[in-house]
């Protein structure tokens, strides 16, 4: 049976990663054009930059969770053989899906954090017509990361349970490996 302590620890780490990703979506930077004191030019002013920290935190917690699960399961490639059957088949499928969801979640969180930290430095002089573009991270980037953190959490839990079942039910052949010989009459 799978280690309940490990499953609980992974669940808590994944919940923290999900919460940080949702918080990053809620607190992403917003920009607006501001006029200087002498009214010679406009520049972009940005609000709080805490979403970058939340996004990086979610990135690191999800990475920690994945490392623990893959370390406990020996990344599916090391260790003793798994018993053939449904548990091994599901473990293989869930292993692939887990890594796919993990890469998508990490890409969303990393891209959102980098984009949120970027602030345009453009200024507009008053003789020009176009106001400065105050670019910010698009709405939903951190939300997509949070959704894939959630999917990764679910799939990694099921993967570890299926892996544990397949690992524990394996019974190597304990009989004689050679051909049995009898007396010749």
Query: Order of SSEs, N→C?
Result: HEEHHEH
> What is the CA-atom radius of gyration, in angstroms?
26 Å
Find the structural class using helix and strand composition.
Answer: mainly alpha
Cα separation of the termini = 51 Å
**Helical fraction:** 55-70%
Question: TL;DR?
Answer:
The chain has 185 residues and is mainly alpha-helical.
Question: What does this protein structure show overall?
Answer:
With 185 residues, the protein is mostly helical. 57% of the residues lie in helices and 8% in strands. The chain has 4 helices and 3 strands. The protein has helices spanning 4-26, 50-72, 86-117, 141-168, and strands at 31-35, 41-46, 123-125. The chain has a 3-stranded antiparallel β-sheet, with no helix packed on it. Helix 2 packs parallel to helix 4 (141-168). The mean pLDDT is 84.
Q: What is the topological layout?
A:
Blueprint: H1 4-26, E1 31-35, E2 41-46, H2 50-72, H3 86-117, E3 123-125, H4 141-168
Antiparallel strand pairs: 1-2, 2-3
Helix pairs in contact: 1-2, 1-4, 2-3, 2-4, 3-4
Descriptive keywords:
8% strand; mainly alpha; rod-shaped
